[in-house]
Amino acid sequence: MSFINGANLGNWLVLEKWMSPQTFSGSDADDEFYLPRTISRDDYVNRIRQHRAEYISERDFVLLRGMGVNSVRLPVPYFVFGDVEPFIGCIEEVDNAMRWAEYYGLTVLLDLHTAPWGQNGFDNGGIQGVCQWSQRPDAVEFTLSVLERLAQRYGHHPALYGIEIINEPVTEGMWKCMNLPARYPARDPELGAASKPNTLEFLYSFYTEAYDRINPHLAEGKKVVFHDAFELMAWQDFMTDKQRYPNVVLDTHQYLMTAEAGGVAQNMESYLSYLKNKLQPDYAAVCKVHDVICGEWCMFNSLACGYDTKGGQSVLNGVEADSSAKGLSLEERTAIYRELCAAQMGIWHLGVGHYYWNYKILFDATTKTWQGWDSWDLGRCVAFNWFCDSQH
């Protein structure tokens, strides 16, 4: 396959409150785990069905193709098959996505985005502030069974690019960088207190077993993708035997907001220095031993917002532009985004491709609350000519 110029279909089948706050209206839930537990069953069923029907349709695949996108990364939940109460399965929507992708000439990376009892404690992990998945053997086995069933169902589908084992399992470094328990407080303090980061040793074992469960069901050329757990340099000796693992791809997620959280100053010189002197050499080194995709990235940064977002924390985290924040003009923001886009695209081209996060967002980016947040939306980035790469 040619270089992947992709987009994520986040917030369709795995909800993230910040991306469409209205989906959580009338509920005090911060995540998908508690949404059905805080509203009536009928309300939950109706709003989920309406959201899924309206958020992504066949028309979106037409628009994606028109933007130059040739692949989509599709996050799916662990309850995709409809066998976990009180959630509603979404396998029919996945079937539709695969069919639409095939018709319009796109490929699909199926990404298991959540795990029972949380693999990271992020809101995008399904249950905020809870990271107990790897401590629970039954949850680990259930995750493996979901992966195997996805491989059985789609392993020979013409549109399948590959299957991603699990999204963003957090290890100790990112746990500390994000100050995770404080940034994503658990609704149930006991569940939060029993949470802890996954170990690399566990992930090495889990990824190997997952590969062995997935690969027998894949047609030749289909990929098994594993996430770097925010430890890009920890995989130099992992699955490097091309005879044993001929179809493995490493996925890394690289956000400037994460670099900010790690101490990178919020100015153009510091961003570019970080990209050139830190990320690019590391990325190049990993690309020597693995096929690498940047499965999530965007142009969002605090400089273009005009205020300190404290590592990409939104109004839902209690962080928003204050009255003294200087709003940048469209021309100023465009210049920032295009320069940063060029620098990042140069790195992604060392590997086999990238997927922008995200295809769309549904908050009102015209309000001061979300000042500068529209760069998360691929459609808006294209409309405002923020991409420097002709492929978009």
H-E string: EHHHEHEHEHHHHEEHHEHHEH
**Rounded average pLDDT:** 94
List unreliable stretches of 5+ residues: none
Label the overall shape. globular
Kindly report the spatial arrangement of strands forming the biggest sheet. 1-2-3-4-5-6-7-8
Q: Structural class of the helix and strand makeup?
A: alpha/beta
What is the terminal separation in angstroms? 18 Å
Please give the count of helices: 14
- Main sheet record: 8 strands, parallel, barrel
What does it look like?
The protein has 392 residues and is of the alpha/beta class. The protein has helices at 35-38, 41-55, 58-66, 91-104, 137-154, 172-177, 180-183, 189-193, 200-214, 256-261, 268-287, 302-305, 330-348, 378-383, and strands at residues 4-8, 71-76, 107-112, 160-164, 223-227, 248-253, 291-296, 353-356. Strand 3, helix 5 and strand 4 (160-164) form a beta-alpha-beta unit.
